[in-house]
């Protein structure tokens, strides 16, 4: 295993300062993804700054909404009473991810930084632009069943697997961070991940030494609680990555949809939200036809790479299903 | 005692973490070895740059072809058929710089700690000269050879003519992907030299075989090699062969002069301990309009490696399972630059019954017949290939009982028409079958002064329950309480015993152990009647009874059998019993085979293609089942293995490299996948085959399951998926 | 630890220690011999684990991490190679081999242990991260006299064959019952799906969990010999 030095940061300021000063350092929280990738010889940090114990563990009411501490575990978060009541889709999504053991260890902040499950990214003998910039993409003409159909580039077709982030995107959640100079900033989850374009190794907007401290769920999104659903379609009945997931959240008034959020997971390098598709739902009564049209729109521009062609029809059918369940319609 | 449901011997050790597996013995200052694997599929190693790892502090030694000990061939001189294996390159581990497959062992890094050994293995700079390799597994359809033995190329009657004259013909191609065993315990070895004597703790399915092979490799007397495997964390076939890592661990221990521990990583498990190869099968069936099969053909296309020969023989089952007078079977293989395939739970049978039984379903449909009835019509009491009657066959009862238990009469024979609670419901079935194998061995059985009975034989328990069933057989035959029997296996210092493979241990070891127990009982009786202080002094030996740890003449309560030992002045009374290689007490002139019928309900989401299997019912005809509780576990486990084959398992390659070499991407069944399983067995003893009437149950459970699932999915959806695994993308 | 043990003779040193000392790499304080084995070099008898430690050299790559922890109720203090996983610490240094190495990737659950009240995968947990935490392994459940009911129930329902995933299954099963995730078969199955059993003992595992949930396990199996 690649040798690294380890430091347990006493506080956030120390963590961010160390991270910005020390080249090739990484924050360590739950480690469920990072430790695996180091052992697989995929990432090679020289320094790990343990932030898991920092005081960002609480889940509390904030600004009318809910603040999820970055270091709170996925399990604790999913089980949180307020979350389950006000943002049930987030709890559902978390519980459909990984295993109970992994969720106990995985942090909310770390979940946002999950790496792709692209087999070539995880296999050092193969070229991979994300792992080794400029080496090429093995997946485009390779085994790409799990990979992206949207937001891809000629350099990378990796998909982002987080269920939690997909649901958070539907809830308009905002990531709070702390920078090394002590300043803080807010980044909507939807803007947090970058598309690969020509630089697939740049995955998020985070700067050197920038630490996720919390994820905020806004008060406005509480109104989706009644009509939301997270659909995860996978090969195994549990403990499997999504082939396609759909976060559908609606506000219904007198049989009409007045607000809509629709986000796809595991089909793109980031949670994939199509606002045009969402707008098509507004003012409409739920119907199979409407949902099918919305699905067509949501998959606009989708492109398969052979093995993953099925994701296009599957995502469409998944959208129809998720909207049907979220709208509680017989459509 | 035989047939009872007993708790597993060593259960307490297993639930408390005390049971020891290969890496868990305390050894003095061990070193850790990790394998370095080739990144190319074919070619030559130009250079291994030792300096690339020299600054890693824990590293003790790098072993590669330049400094490795030269090993002898591990094969017995008699092994191997020169006709079919002429293309095989005979090569011992690290013998030269040649590379024949991606993932081949090309060096080992030995270090004082695991982390540095792994670091060294990943950091070692190796340069290659790439050669022309062949890794495309579908290329065998065009470019193949036919191994000679009749076992693989066979025909009877006139297939072509009969097919042409038949009323109904189906001919389809079925494919299964490469699969990997993935037992939970990684293959692992601990090797310790003491002068010329070598002790190896190994995760092996055959301590006796490994002892011989290791001894041959290092030029030692077998008695100087001791292989210990008290507990093995599953095998399913991948721990049956002596793979390079075991020899390399012993080599590293010899070269460093320290005990060495090596475990394969989960990734290594996909390259270095075999696999079930991808197979393309072409099955043709021809019947008259009443459903009587007239002709059949089963052609298998698969591969083996450049450095080893293994033939997944899918057609063999088809040649005997039904009454098909005109039959043709071919097996064709390519030699590819891939790791050598090997036995995997029902090798040939699990893959072969998938194709045959899916084809049978297609035929039944084309004939507009019930799949169960169609099979009953074509049932046979004779193995037409061997031209022998079966020793004991009750397959029709399995069909009928299974159909009844399952509620087969509720099946809607029109596919895609049964919608219930929003899901498509389908019912499918298939025949299960697996041959009964047996081999010889030897054991010591000893009654000790304290009344305990000690059994020793060098077979092993890979989770199958060998400890327990051998204990039951001894207790039953000798008439002692089960708790008094101590079973010691998993050590090659004991008398030679069978490999845990081919579902043979209970029949093989179980028989010679039972005969040993009979011999010991006789010896105790004759000793007792010769002891003047014995209550049974000089009575007729035939009147003696052995029960509950007591000897009696039937009229009295009797006395504890250990009294016989105590009076003898010896520490114990002991017998040795051995059988030749064919095993004991097998009547000649029969074909030995087990059978079963498996019924599956499949639920399919009509839009999303998500498949759920709410229930599986199976009824087996496997002879006597020695332990009900453990027997059930074997069947459940076998069926779940078949579930994985049908719906999940798929090793993916890119240019000869496995690209899903982990348990997060190679899916095996999880708890949430498995719902109701209902298993029954007819429990009709087959005394023609074994002394206790059992025939072995380790593999039959897997056979037929994938086909029954595929047939149920067809019944649910109207879609014939002829390529495993059946994943939801194939149904949307 | 006694002073004479601390001042080991040169010949007692392992080769790698010697070479490092010869290379005049600064010696770091408080590293016990057992603990020097950080990457997993030696097996230290569980009972003799030192709460204090001796002088030994550092690896040139990285600092050792000093931690204090409790494992199955025993307090211990050690210095570790930061790469050491909790799993390797347990198995290779503390001889607590009941916790199993199945995939080393968090994908099988064979290595499941408790940190505090939660079950986690010890293969993906750096041992450095158990500083200040309480770890419980399969060796630490039940009591001196009795097995844990889940252990008895697994035997009764044959919730295993080869036994290799069993420790992890039992650790998970205990939490499934404790955390009220055993309401139905479906719920048990979902919450047990982080533990793979390749032998396919799932039916027995679910049955065992239900009997513990309902308190009707075979109590005669509880007593340790």
Automatic annotation (TrEMBL), chain A:
Classification lineage: Bacteria, Pseudomonadati, Bacteroidota, Flavobacteriia, Flavobacteriales
Species name: Autumnicola tepida
Coiled-coil ranges from the UniProt annotation: none
Keywords tagged on the record: FAD, Flavoprotein
Keyword 4Fe-4S appears in the UniProt entry: no
Keyword Iron: no
Domain of life of the native organism: Bacteria
Location of the FAD-binding PCMH-type domain: 1-222
Protein name: Xanthine dehydrogenase family protein subunit M
Listed PROSITE patterns: FAD_PCMH (PS51387)
UniProtKB/TrEMBL annotation, chain B:
InterPro entries: Ald_Oxase/Xan_DH_a/b (IPR000674), Ald_Oxase/Xan_DH_a/b_sf (IPR036856), Ald_Oxase/xanthine_DH-like (IPR016208), AldOxase/xan_DH_MoCoBD1 (IPR008274), AldOxase/xan_DH_MoCoBD2 (IPR046867), AldOxase/xan_DH_Mopterin-bd_sf (IPR037165)
Cleaved signal peptide residues: none
Domain Aldehyde oxidase/xanthine dehydrogenase a/b hammerhead per the UniProt entry, residue ranges: 16-132
Domain of life of the source: Bacteria
Keywords (A to Z) from UniProt: Molybdenum, Oxidoreductase
SMART domains: Ald_Xan_dh_C
SUPFAM superfamilies: CO dehydrogenase molybdoprotein N-domain-like (SSF54665), Molybdenum cofactor-binding domain (SSF56003)
One Pfam family cited in the UniProt record for this chain: MoCoBD_2
Positions of the UniProt region annotated as Disordered: 71-90
Designated name of the protein: Xanthine dehydrogenase family protein molybdopterin-binding subunit
Organism of this sequence: Autumnicola tepida
From TrEMBL, chain C:
Keywords assigned: Iron, Membrane, Metal-binding, Oxidoreductase, Transmembrane, Transmembrane helix
InterPro entries assigned: 2Fe-2S-bd, 2Fe-2S-bd_dom_sf, 2Fe-2S_ferredoxin-like_sf, 2Fe-2S_ferredoxin-type, 2Fe2S_fd_BS, Aldehyde_Oxdr_Iron-Sulfur, Beta-grasp_dom_sf, TAT_signal
Name recorded for this polypeptide: 2Fe-2S iron-sulfur cluster-binding protein
Pfam families assigned: Fer2, Fer2_2
PANTHER family (UniProt xref): OXIDOREDUCTASE, IRON-SULPHUR BINDING SUBUNIT-RELATED-RELATED
Residues in 2Fe-2S ferredoxin-type domain copies: 65-141
Species of provenance: Autumnicola tepida
Keyword Ion transport assigned: no
Listed transmembrane segments: 30-49
Transmembrane helix in keyword set: yes
Cross-referenced Gene3D superfamilies: 3.10.20.30, [2Fe-2S]-binding domain
